[in-house]
Amino acid sequence: MAPEARIKTVLKTSAAALCAGVVALSSFSLGAEAARRHHRSHHHHLPRLPAAPARALPYPQLPLPFEIAGAQYLPVTWADVKGWSEDNHLAAYKTFRGSCRTINAQTGISEPKALAGSLNEPCRLAKSLELSDDAKAKSFFEQNFAPLRISRLGEPDGFVTGYYEPVLEGSRTQTEIYNVPVYRRPSNLFVRGYKQDTLSLPNKGPVYRKIGRRKLVPYYDRGEIEDGKIAGRGLEIAWLKDPTDLLFAQIQGSAKIKFEDGSSVRLNYDAYNGYPYTAVGRILIERGIIPREEMSMQKIREWMTQNPDGAKELRRANRAYIFFREVNLSDKEEAVGAQGIPLTAGRSIAVDKALHVYGTPFFIEGELPIESERSKTPFRRLMIAQDTGSAIIGPARADLFFGAGQEAGRVSGRLRHPMQFVMLVPKSLDPSLRAARLPVPDPRPSQKIAKLFPQTDPAKDSDKDPKNPAAAVKPAEPNKAAATSTATAQDKDAAVAVANPVPLPEPRPNIKPDREQRKRVNPRSDQQ
Fold it and tell me: Where are the domains positioned within the chain?
């Protein structure tokens, strides 16, 4: 072979070998990089810095005994409770035992409030105590409860109204005289989070009706229901003579209806249509129809009887509408409250269920027009929370139950008065006992140390700092120039006598990141 041809053959062979080596090297590098990333993403991550240990608090966080939103309360002694010794404690004890029947029957505490569980202990004790002596009943409350004065935040007193069970004439069927329907809960009434057949629906919040399969809209208001939106569906429990009778039965939350054949039926609150309650009496006061000092249920009824057209408009101003259910009780028993037990006239009250627990005793003290509209009868009585109502809102707000009939309606209809509230809290939640377990704060430094190392306010120091631009532009008052110069001289003398303040440590060290380390560990490489 010629020398030139031999040289060309060698060059071609070398070039081919070189290309093959480059291809192999690049394939190896890409494969190694892919393997490295796969190993990193599937087997281990970059080491993370250990988490900083939890900083120990200087004092333990002890839970509060209980907390009532929007309330202020003050522990008091029994001697501070005016009229406590003169009350009939035995009657209150019997009413309290009635509430304990439902409390003892509960297998688990469904109430999130701390007071719910604490009532179990005194209720278990009351279950075995058949007391017949007032002194022993008084001792029972004093040994198992602690008095706590309570009111709305910023207000000294609470507020009470009265309610009763109306006794009305009615009919099982519609006639020319009895043509006002009393409805039970409709089947198309929905409350979010509750089943349709739930026995106790909330008395607050929105209520809906279903259109089609999924669409929910607000339920009918009073005007729409009175115009017949739910008529003819078999929801009528009974029929009344006057729509005013139905309005007052709905305001009271219960009623007893007597029929012409001598039988009767008792109705109790079951649900409402989702609209807030509007007091018709307040509307009459605002319009100047009835003076505030003369307002009562009797005055409202008289005006509505004399003004039927105005009564219709007044009823519809209260868009809330109440649905009832039949309650099987004998005529000797009182109406049933929201706790599910018969109420006791003069001892049962309705409270705000969102804040309080059924079975809680409250001592209510003040003056009420019990004997007449202008009388000031002392009212100092231990009451038991056994009911609720949509208009009862607040920590020191109660509706006093006075029984059934016209006389009870006359008394309860004129109650709108401020009263003192003392809440009886079980000893296990006594705030004073819990406060004794709180740790004592660390002792303050001595006066000598405080003078040598004063801790000044940084905001005030910035005003005196000449480097602060805000302090430089602050104009000086001309009429206080002499006082300013005197104060400056005093500050200089004080600065000489007192040492410089000790600088506080920084909350965390200011460590600048190492650029070389940032180059070595690129956080974005993990995200590719």
Answer: 82-146
